[in-house]
């Protein structure tokens, strides 16, 4: 089972009478795309399309999600077959659901260095739903609209010669069994309204920890429904381009044996947290992992999930390193995480979110 990724470089984005890709320029039929979205969901009352370009004096507010345009080019199962990927462009869904909050993207100035999206050409969708739409329905409408718009843009690459084609190999690689056996444990947020994640189309809040072919994640297998916490959420774009998966695949068979990906949720109840941690450790052991990389989404009570996991993995003989941000106060002098354990002796900090 091989995933073939065909990439198409986008250096310019403009509006035009059709949606097409030529010479690195992506033209977007704004009227056609907005009509497509209104037809997708009758509760969409209005859609406005804006373009935001790197280096311009532009701030995008109330960002719900960011999606890279990706198109399945055959009917193979997720994680296999061919996908077309537009590089240099992304779809951003915007508009308040429960208030003026969520993310900000600055395309220039000092704020631009804090977001990877400032270097992309952004197709920004400002969506308004009919009055009376419940917040959970509103979120689902925006999530569907973002995916639909991204698919629409990616269709422009269907008959274009790709800039690059590469096969993403994993289970096909013959490995030296003497290499370290490393697993990746991906914690995704599942805490209810505007704080959820979807795996293969299903809300992960009802999901037991499970193993996944890592290429499924690259093939639009994980979609963000986590809208609220600016600077502390993984967008769909982050999942599509998960750097841990990329690095573990790049080193597979050379520096380590990447034995698999375990996807686990971050529930709200203590008993469910304990059950998920225990089940995740069991799966890591079944994969034969001697080491694990753990990434966390969310802050506060998800710190407890992380510590339960690290404790369980270490006690099971699986040496583990975690990636986590900190909430250590504006001066960095407060407790960084809401929970701890002596077994968490290898943590990579991705920054202090309290720092202005």
How would you describe this structure to a colleague?
This protein has helices at 30-40, 135-154, 214-221, 236-240, 243-251, 270-286, 302-315, and strands spanning 3-9, 12-15, 20-22, 25-28, 44-52, 59-67, 70-72, 81-87, 89-94, 103-106, 121-129, 164-168, 181-189, 195-199, 202-203, 210-212, 222-226, 257-266, 291-295, 319-326, 347-352. By secondary structure, it is an alpha/beta fold. The strands form five sheets. It has a six-stranded mixed sheet, with helices on both faces. A hairpin with a 2-residue loop joins strand 14 (195-199) and strand 15. The mean pLDDT is 94. It has seven helices and 21 strands.
Summary keywords:
356 residues; alpha/beta; six-stranded mixed sheet; globular
Major sheet: size, sense and barrel closure?
A: 6 strands, mixed
- CA-to-CA gap between the ends? 46 Å
Fraction of residues in helix: 10-25%
Note poorly predicted spans: none
Secondary-structure-derived class: alpha/beta
What fraction of the residues are assigned to beta strands by DSSP? 25-35%
The count of strands amounts to 21
SSE sequence, one letter per element: EEEEHEEEEEEEHEEEEEHEHHEHEHEE
Trace the largest sheet across and list its strands: 16-18-13-19-20-21
Outline of the structure:
The protein has helices at 30-40, 135-154, 214-221, 236-240, 243-251, 270-286, 302-315, and strands at 3-9, 12-15, 20-22, 25-28, 44-52, 59-67, 70-72, 81-87, 89-94, 103-106, 121-129, 164-168, 181-189, 195-199, 202-203, 210-212, 222-226, 257-266, 291-295, 319-326, 347-352. By secondary structure, the protein is of the alpha/beta class.
